[in-house]
Structure to design on (423 residues):
């Protein structure tokens, strides 16, 4: 079962980006300047061929963190697990003079993009019930990739499908995960269960979480090697790649216990 | 001989335009301007001001889709509550940054911009003068952005600097 409830247009893009030979975009993108007033200073971008918008995120805010690579890996893994993380592609801006040359582009999941914290109090009980599955399913995933950043309402985008009226969710911002915390290939009990975000108004759906645990336990190690291995060295060093591969493979069978399921 | 160095009094006024982007996937120009929020800080006073639309026009409700229109049914009420909440829970001069961090996509508090504070307000204790300045500034900026949008409201609060 997939927990993704994206538009056909976005799913098409997700397939294109997850299964492309190269994780780096070969399309031409226009830089439209900084978006909004946040300190992260994301950049508005537009694909020239079809005028599709995206948001480019710098990867060298903290040189010790492979921001863009982490976003791309998380998006690709989520795609293969059927989890609602929007598509991401790497973008080499090919200009060393830029403060952030190696960035990633994340597609906007929805035309009108609000986050859980802004809108939670407005949801009906039916909509909250629809959110239970995706929220519970994302927990094993975020534990697996060690999304150690303080996950919160701002990381969950919400939308109502204009066709069937169903609630759509998108989980974003995985720059602070994976090798941000895994400095070497060791498993420490302290790292076993990072902070989790599950709104009290939604509650836990054990079946949804267990579905993802089952998928993780049979996740193809070759696919992990492929997704990590194809990231260019400019975005992720070989040492970090090895660490991520080791930990992801090792943790597939540990996540269930980490979550007490 | 060492002499005592006294800091030169200073004051800061910054504002942030509040926008709603309703077609992020295809157009960054599809924007509804909702209001302007400003923050004043001096050694004596700190203040918050907001001018915003009281209602949405029917066309805007359609553009914003269901959730946006529901959230911003009364834009002023929601934006004042949010702005005041951040202003009260952050240190002087930090409210706009906190608002921009929290409302960073469709509902967007844009990059803050500073405007000069008149010299006579820098060390002033006169609430009415400071209030007049703040309201004039945000009203001017909002009308520059939108022309004369009807159904707006402004509100302000001023406090002693900590």
């Amino acid at each position: 079962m997939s927990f993704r409830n994206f538009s056909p247009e976005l799913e098409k893009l997700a397939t294109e980006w997850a299964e492309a030979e190269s994780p780096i975009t070969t399309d031409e993108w226009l830089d439209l300047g900084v978006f909004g007033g946040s300190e992260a200073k994301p950049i508005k971008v537009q694909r020239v061929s079809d005028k599709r918008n995206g948001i480019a995120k710098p990867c060298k805010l903290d040189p010790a963190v492979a921001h863009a690579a982490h976003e791309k890996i998380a998006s690709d893994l989520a795609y293969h697990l059927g989890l609602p993380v929007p598509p991401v592609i790497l973008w080499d801006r090919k200009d060393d003079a830029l403060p952030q040359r190696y960035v990633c582009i994340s597609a906007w999941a929805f035309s009108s993009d609000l986050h859980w914290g802004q809108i939670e109090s407005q949801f009906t009980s039916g909509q909250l019930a629809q959110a239970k599955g995706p929220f519970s399913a994302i927990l094993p995933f975020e534990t697996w990739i060690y999304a150690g950043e303080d996950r919160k309402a701002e990381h969950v985008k919400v939308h109502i499908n204009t066709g069937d009226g169903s609630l759509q969710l998108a989980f974003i911002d995985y720059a602070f995960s994976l090798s941000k915390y895994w400095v070497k290939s060791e498993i420490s009990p302290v790292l076993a269960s990072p902070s989790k975000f599950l709104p009290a108004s939604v509650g836990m759906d054990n079946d949804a979480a267990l579905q993802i645990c089952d998928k993780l336990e049979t996740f193809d190690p070759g696919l992990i090697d492929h997704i990590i291995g194809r990231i260019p060295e400019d975005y992720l060093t070989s040492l970090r790649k090895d660490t991520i591969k080791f930990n992801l493979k090792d943790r597939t069978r540990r996540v269930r216990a980490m979550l007490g399921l | 001989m060492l002499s005592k160095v006294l800091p030169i009094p200073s004051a800061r006024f910054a504002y942030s335009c509040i926008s709603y982007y309703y077609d992020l996937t295809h157009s960054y120009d599809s924007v509804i301007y909702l209001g302007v929020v400003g923050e004043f800080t001096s050694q004596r006073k700190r203040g918050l001001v907001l001018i915003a639309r009281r209602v949405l026009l029917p066309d805007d409700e359609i553009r914003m889709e269901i959730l946006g229109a529901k959230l911003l049914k009364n834009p002023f009420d929601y934006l004042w509550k949010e702005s005041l909440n951040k202003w009260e829970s952050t240190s002087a001069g930090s409210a706009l940054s906190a608002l921009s961090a929290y409302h960073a996509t469709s509902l967007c508090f844009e990059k803050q911009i500073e405007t000069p504070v008149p010299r006579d307000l820098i060390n002033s204790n006169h609430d009415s003068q400071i209030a007049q300045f703040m309201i004039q500034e945000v009203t001017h900026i909002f009308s520059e952005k939108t022309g004369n949008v009807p159904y707006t409201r402004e509100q302000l609060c001023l406090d002693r600097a900590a």
About this structure: Chain B has a mean pLDDT of 92.
